[in-house]
Amino acid sequence: MTEVIRRKIDRARQPQADGAPGADRGWRLALARATRDAMGLDLEVRRLQVLRASLAEILDIAPERALVSLLDGPEGGLGVLMFAPAVTAAMIEMQTLGRLASQPAPPRKPTRIDAAMVAGVVDRALAGLDDTLAEEADRIWAGGFRYASFLEDLRPLALLLEEETYRVLLADVSLGESAREGQVILVLPAIGRGEQIAMPSAEAEAAPQFTTALAAQVMQVDCRLDAIIGRLTLPIRQIMGLQPGDVLELPFSAIDAVTIETMDGRRVARARLGQNRGMRALKVLEADSFRAANAVHHRPAPVEDPAAPPDLRAAS
Fold this sequence. Notes:
By secondary structure, the protein is an alpha+beta fold. The protein folds into two domains: about 15-190, CheC-like (Chemotaxis protein chec, 3-Layer(aba) Sandwich), CATH 3.40.1550.10; about 225-240 and about 250-310, Roll (Surface presentation of antigens (SPOA)), CATH 2.30.330. Helices cover about 35% and strands about 25% of the residues. It is built from ten helices and ten strands. It has a six-stranded antiparallel beta sheet with strand order 1-5-6-3-2-4. The longest helix is centred in the middle third of the chain and has 21 residues, at about 110-130. The chain is elongated, with a radius of gyration of 35 Å.
């Protein structure tokens, strides 16, 4: 029974399977954050499909007059990111006008200037995808890509890309308050060339997990500290005679010489007495060294009262 439970736990620890929500969720978040942080453009992925396609099929699904960015990946792998004209126009308007125009611009062929203006967003989105896939199995095929160059049309793709199977992340997006609609298509080689996620063994994970759990428990334990403003040594006869209203005089310099100590008298810091928002407060002036913090603070010797009995001379 124990072995069965252990196998179930080990399976639960495995990274998400190929094609699981890793790349799907990661690309949604990365693309939206990139446009928001880089140019203040709100982008919402309304629908996203993860497909497998051949090179010929990719050329068929590409939007007309799309802005085509060639991506450079691990071990010489090449990918493609395509923005539909509506998406490109929205990004250019946000960077030139600071807002989206009331009416979308008519579709046009993208230029190298357009590509240069969106290259930063492309790299930011791809870097964000890397971050979200740090612990995901999809990182082996979707991670490590960056902007390489701009293609004026789709024809060079047939020569640049290899005849192999590709993964296509086809996203239908809406942009800004006017909810302009368009497509963003990310094409990456299906055969992963990135870093493989190495899963540690159950034995290797046990010690760090135990240490972390123990540290969490220890850090929740309360530790009492006393603020010592000053000390008086009085005869026990005087202590026993204290009444409400009696005043014990402390040296004025004690305000600047408050010590913070543990319950057993170990000094950990020096502080000054003051106020904060109407309450008594301490300002830490100097934290003692480790050696001083572990040195036992010795109280001054008591002053004897000649009038007290010999066996009850003084009390601290």
